[in-house]
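Record type: monomer structure entry
Structure origin: computed from sequence
Chain ID: A
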Amino acid sequence: MKRTLTLAACTALALATTPLRATDLSNMTATEQQAFGDAVRAYILENPELIMEAVSILREREAQAEARADFDLVTVNAQDIFDDGFSYVGGNPEGDITLVEFMDYRCGYCRKAYDDVEELVASDGNIRLIVKEFPILGDASMASSQFAIAIKQLHGGAAYKDAHDALIALSGEPNEATLTRLATSLGHDAAEIMERMNSDDVLMEIATTRALAQRLQITGTPTFVLQDELVRGYVPLDAMRDLVSDKRG
């Protein structure tokens, strides 16, 4: 049996290394096709590690293709990603690395990523952080983003950051009563904020970001854009630092 398998392996290897036209199944007789198939099957059974090797190569090729596709998406949409004229810009506005986060206040992984992003930006000192309000988890998410954007439009980036920090840590539902109390605690006219939340200007920001996310094929949060790369999902602090280091070369 061993001799038969070895002979089959040699046959399969010889067939695999001959010109394509010589192994074109459409040019083979039924008997030749059967022999070829049997030889290949026998060779694989004798060398099953080839399957894992092939799977590994396939995954690598798929990852490379996805990275190229993401690079193209970021390149085409760079203006709207990095300079849309309304998204909050924090960290070091003159930093050599730009990190963009599409986030949702009700997303558990966004909340998990919050401390890591804060530490990354603070400890690095040379990262420009852009926050994209991307509420996708229902009415509570939408209300939270409307509240944060209303404060930003009325009172600027520093006030937005305070609201952002409070909303990401909010344990209760962001209903009208809760948001009214939060606006007051942040030193704002609650009635003015609540009225602004439903304005066309606020809703337009959210709609514009959603359209951008659709073009970038972003369907979940958090999703990051790090320079020319899309990073989908939560990334631990150390891994994020490695990504930043790689971008700096």
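Annotation 1: The longest helix spans residues 49-76.
Annotation 2: The two ends are 55 Å apart (CA to CA).
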